[in-house]
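# nightly structure sweep
# worker-07 picked up a monomer target from the shared queue
# config: single-sequence mode, recycle default, output format = structure tokens
# input follows
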Amino acid sequence: PYAFKTIDGGKSWTAIVAGLPEGAVVHAVREDPVRRGLLYAATEQGVYVSFDDGGRWQKLQLNLPATPVHDLVVKGDDLVAATHGRSFWILDDVTPLRQIGPQTARDEVVLYAPQPALRLHYPDQIDSRRPVGANPPAGALIDYVLKTEPKGELTIDILDAGGRSVRHLSSARSTKEIQPPEWPDQIVPDDRIAAKAGMNRLVWDLRVDDPAQIPGAFYSGPTPRGPLVPPGHYQVKLTVGGETRTAPLVVAVDPRAKDAEPAIRAKTELAMATLADIDRLHRAVNAVRGTEADLDRATKDLAGKPSQAALLAQAGKLKSRFASVEGKLMQVDMKGSEANLAFPGMLNEQFASFALIIEDADTPPTAAQQALYQSLHAQLDAELVALRALQGADLVAFNAKLATSGVSAAK
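# output follows
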């Protein structure tokens, strides 16, 4: 292979071929437009990279087929390769390559500053059977390197401009509640992040933390989740083994949506209010189900005591009232994702559908959407007021009677 460089306008030339093997004929050398001295070589045996202005080359092949590469171009943060007979290939996001240096080789933990992430509206499912190239992952690409596999938990927090965590992710614990599987080949996603020795990548979907979930609940669409964050400046915080690394992250508006920031702020405000209501509703349903389980246990304990027939009847009536509240908060007969065809959606299902509707585009919420949210919000408030009243005097009085009967209280 032959490759040369000049630092004096062509008066003298120096060979830069160390690391290029026999037969790796060099067709083109391109310098990275952001980091000086970062070079890419298109050769007869694939792509090579040098971090020291050609002092040493190493393979940058990854999953690129073993084929001659006749030219390269750096477009933004991507490296595009023109092969001989094997189509065009794109290496998405070379920002980690721009940050590699002597310090990164010594550090036990390296967190690379991510490239700006575009806030786009991606479909939840994409047909991957079509014979087309793969798009980049949807979201912010967060790359980090661990010299050794950690023995404990690794966490990544996304902080907003005020330092508040908007998303918390862990390598050890999952907080995601998914619908029960409905078919044998259903793919169940795992939101635990990678923590293996070497290079790791997290694709943050630009969403805030999910609301509390109702275990075993079904929905006609995705399980309720956190909305997209608005454009702005964020920070990635990685914590592992007592060490912390931080890096800035910019979430940018879709460049095709002109002057969309005010609309996005208004839509985000509505989406966050909806998220808070969904969270309140889910926690209320979980609390009701806990109380119902306690009442079932108390009923079982009272059943063996003939002298407590009146208290047993009161337990049944109290459970019926809790069940009535639960039935207004959610569709208790929803036993599959298409059960909404047979049973009407209650507040839970209406909120879930509304949350999906307002994720349509970077446009301000309509008057109809604002009015619908206010209606749903008022209905939820009314049901939660009724629930608190039921959890208050009625349940307290019942528990007082249970105590005199030697039966554990219902919570």
